[in-house]
Design brief:
heterodimer; A: about 525 residues; alpha/beta; nine-stranded mixed β-sheet; 18 strands; globular; B: about 350 residues; eight-stranded mixed β-sheet; 11 helices; about 30% strand
């Protein structure tokens, strides 16, 4: 998505072949190489890129973790995981070649000697495999491990690249639990890597439809003129899932829906839907416009939070016809837990475009169906001709489906066939899966390629993350305040959340969109 | 009325594919509506473009129907397949309609593309533009896949409507005459028609394999130091090898020497250094190997024993490494899918072709 890279400009043989920036040969060092993320997402993503012929042949992966293991054992484990989790069937001949680029480096994260030997190993790899001194460090570990890893990388000199080479770091979410911790993490990262070396990953932005929001808005001249408070009545963003905590209670108890989903994924979607057109497709142009939106989010007082934010927790109920337990009965959850599994918010963006356009966000676990969607609800036609008080027409609604069944639909009014003037809403529907036979790459594939290419467009910038926390923190604080604490409302699993969430919109004369 | 249906889960049908249900030409729209009305809600019609296919080869209709069936798996379209025999004495016009359905990636729903097929024999072959115009899916681009040779006169009416014309120059007996016709028609059309040569598409994976060697800034110097190139091509694919050589020449600013002969081409780079490109005919894939030598380093791209992969390797004083990359295949379905997926204006093709035009 970024401007043409230096690589494309200077390799004349790439002209006409690449429509994206070309990834450069490098060594990817994965911290937490035996963890779930590496097995389920990272190595399968790298394999898929290799199978599609888009991985630089010299690319090398060094898994860095505590457990003693040989290269061969590491390769074997990764092969088993990739066969299980890869989106493409693993082909032996491609895997065999790919596996030769996988190495394992055993060390404790805080052990400086492990990093010294890593330097030697990386230099050897550069010589033998032609990785050109380029290094991509992937922190697939819990945030409390960032500091020792980054400190040791710096002390070993691995944060700096030689001339003509680069060193970058990818940081996984959660990026902090509040503004202070995010600032602290940023400080830790900044001590070793500068902002332009840092790639904070939010896999939502790697999804095809998230990227398509910009195309929909800025490549189609019909939408931009009406994408403002004069024509838009309100916007809804929904992220619903049928799943419960699914073994993540340890993490989820400390996070909750607001931190887990709203602070990162949903605010990112909000930015894409509300931002102004960037001056170009460069990473900083796009991210600069997104930051303006996060900064423009109207901060709420304690009283306003009680009025504009609803939190809920699922009680026992049924999903897809099967009984499921309530949140507090889930393994690892405290019986008196106050962690929210549902949040609904009414937010305002104080900018010229969307001033007076409320944006409703809801996210929840154990809802009747799974789906992430953005819907833009346009104002009704004037109350003349067809839109009279006696037969009020529905609004036009533009829906952007992020997952599953990615696509876009537009609801409009049409005359029913017959001699009378009966008007009914109809839906024009575009499905990615129907129109384009080719499967989209996984979000991690796209994001890894971008990081190797030096394209930070789809990664969160430091100020984006901190501004998002600055908006979220007062809500979290209100929820733990000793006085006038907003309630935590129960909802049965399999319902669309607590009634209070419906009332949030009903007070404005609106209702949640039916998914 | 029954719907002629081919599905991905009945591969055995592929060999008995027929153009579909016979219909009167004037009733095609009505019959199509009926076809969809009867199909039920489990099927969705999809179309991203009009793909007109024209062939004068005997038996082309069933063959092209099979190709369209496979192409529509990745590229939803309205296909207008025309089998013509202008030399026939008897005048004959026949039409069929059918739908190619594939189960969507998400499962469940069948995604269907329409195919309209026409057999035009004798004087009715001149109806081609009319047939195409009256059955286009409105507002969608028109790709015309012309199989075989172009004849004079080229119909300006038809060309004015085409967005992309797809041909395979490898099948042409006289490249210069054919290309002249295409370019004249393109100029007369007074609109931007993209020329898409499947012989160029055939080279995509080889070009990717070669290009990736020079992505790292440190390797850019190697491009200036190329001394020789070796290309192995299959019988009948010399034009493909010439296009590959033309691509290197165009992108690296080499000039073709007049002394170039059949087996070895002589180029000069910007520094007037001589570069020899040798072409060797070998049974196998259209292009089975390309080796680029720069001093002590040799870059190789070659079809592996498993023909759908390329062995990509570097040998030299500094490092030796190799890997596998997708090779694609030479079948028309893969070439068309690749071409439709990549799109683009093909400026590089035009430059590559210009470099070796006199040799094609």
């Amino acid at each position: 998505m970024s401007k043409t890279s230096e690589t494309q400009q200077t390799n004349p043989l790439r002209e006409g072949l690449a429509t994206r920036t070309v990834p450069q040969a490098c060594t990817v060092v994965i911290f937490g190489a035996t963890g779930d993320l590496t097995m389920r997402k990272l190595i399968p993503a790298l394999y898929n890129i290799a199978a599609d012929g888009e991985l630089p042949p010299a690319l090398t992966v060094v898994g860095f973790a505590r457990r003693p293991k040989t290269d061969e054992q590491f390769r074997k484990e990764q092969e088993e995981a990739t066969r299980k989790f890869s989106r493409q069937t693993v082909r032996d001949e491609i895997w065999d070649g790919f596996a030769q680029s996988l190495f394992y480096h055993q060390s404790e994260f805080h052990d400086a000697s492990g990093y010294k030997s890593l330097v030697e190993r990386l230099e050897k790899i550069d010589k033998e495999r032609g990785t050109g001194g380029n290094r991509l460090f992937y922190l697939a570990v819990a945030p409390d491990q960032f500091e020792p890893i980054l400190k040791n990388l710096k002390e070993a000199g691995l944060n700096k690249a030689g001339e003509g080479s680069w060193a970058r770091v990818i940081v996984e979410k959660p990026f902090g639990t509040d503004l202070d911790s995010a600032k602290e993490l940023n400080r830790i990262v900044r001590q070793a890597f500068s902002e332009d070396q840092t790639y904070r990953i939010d896999h939502f932005l790697g999804k095809e439809t998230a990227q398509n929001i910009l195309v929909l808005r800025f490549a189609n001249a019909i939408f931009e003129p009406i994408w403002n408070g004069r024509y838009v009545d309100h916007i809804q963003i929904t992220a619903a899932e049928t799943l419960g905590v699914e073994g993540r209670a340890g993490y989820y108890e400390g996070a909750g829906a607001l931190r887990d989903m709203v602070q990162n994924h949903l605010l990112q979607l909000l930015c894409l839907v509300a931002m102004e057109p960037p001056t170009d497709l460069g990473a900083d142009s796009i991210r600069g416009e997104k930051v303006k939106i996060v900064k423009s989010l109207r901060r709420m007082t304690h009283e306003e939070i009680a009025e504009n934010v609803v939190r809920g927790q699922y009680a026992e109920g049924a999903i897809n016809g099967k009984d499921v337990p309530g949140y507090r009965s889930e393994k690892g959850v405290k019986p008196d837990s106050k962690t929210e599994t549902f949040v609904a918010l009414r937010v305002r963006v104080d900018d010229w475009r969307l001033a007076d356009v409320p944006i409703y966000i809801r996210v929840g676990k154990r809802l009747p169906k799974s789906g992430t969607e953005i819907s833009v609800h346009f104002k009704k036609a004037p109350p003349v001709l067809f839109n009279k008080e006696s037969v009020s027409l529905d609004q036009n609604v533009l829906v952007i489906r992020i997952q599953p069944d990615e696509g876009i639909s537009l609801r409009m009014q049409a005359k029913m066939p017959g001699t009378t003037f009966r008007i009914e809403p109809v839906k024009m529907d575009f499905h990615y899966g129907t129109s384009f036979g080719k499967a989209s790459p996984e979000a991690y594939e796209r994001l890894l390629l971008d990081a190797m290419s030096g394209d930070a467009t789809l990664f969160a910038r430091r100020d984006e993350v901190e501004e998002a926390w600055a908006f979220i923190d007062p809500i979290e604080e209100a929820w733990v305040a000793k006085e006038n604490q907003p309630g935590l409302f129960e909802y049965p699993a399999g319902s669309w959340g607590p009634e209070e969430a419906d009332e949030l919109l009903a007070r404005d004369g609106r209702a949640w969109r039916r998914l | 009325m029954t719907m002629t249906m081919t599905t991905t889960d009945t591969p055995s049908l592929q060999h008995s594919i027929s153009p579909g249900l016979p219909v009167e030409i004037g009733k095609i729209d009505r019959e199509l509506k009926k076809l969809w009305a009867e199909s039920g809600s489990a099927m969705t019609r999809a179309s991203l473009m009009n793909l007109a296919v024209y062939s004068e080869a005997p038996g082309s209709l069933p063959r092209n129907t099979e190709i369209i069936f496979k192409i529509t798996e990745d590229h939803a379209c309205r296909a207008i397949v025309i089998g013509a025999n202008p030399g026939a004495k008897e005048n004959r016009v026949e039409a069929w309609i059918s739908a190619h359905c594939h189960v969507s990636r998400a499962g469940g729903k069948q995604i269907c593309s329409e195919q309209l097929s026409f057999l035009l024999e004798g004087p009715s072959a001149r109806l081609l533009p009319n047939i195409v115009f009256s059955h286009l899916d409105s507002d969608l681009p028109l790709c015309l896949w012309w199989q075989g040779e172009f004849h004079e006169p080229m119909d300006p009416q038809l060309w004015a409507w085409v967005d992309r014309v797809i041909y395979d120059s490898q099948t042409w007996s006289d490249f210069r005459t054919q290309m002249q016709r295409v370019e004249t028609a393109q100029a007369d059309a007074k609109q931007r028609i993209v020329l898409c040569d499947l012989n160029w598409t055939r080279l995509v994976q080889f070009r990717l394999g070669l290009a990736q060697f020079f992505d790292h800034p440190a390797s850019h110097q190697d491009l200036e130091e190329i001394e020789s190139v070796e290309i192995d091509f299959a019988p009948g694919y010399r034009s493909t090898a010439l296009l590959l050589a033309g691509w290197l020449a165009a992108q690296l600013h080499w000039t073709l020497e007049k002394s170039s002969k059949d087996a070895a081409l002589a180029f000069r780079d910007r520094a007037e250094k001589a570069i020899r490109v040798s072409l060797t005919e070998k049974v196998g894939e259209p292009i089975s190997r390309c080796a680029v030598k720069c001093g002590s380093t040799a870059f190789h791209v070659a079809h592996s024993a498993n023909a759908d992969l390329l062995d990509v390797s570097v040998e030299g004083s500094n490092s030796e490494r190799k890997c596998l990359m997708p090779a694609g295949s030479n079948d028309p379905v893969r070439l068309m899918s690749e071409e439709l997926m990549r799109g683009g204006p093909h400026r590089v093709y035009l430059r590559a072709m210009s470099c070796v035009r006199d040799l094609l």
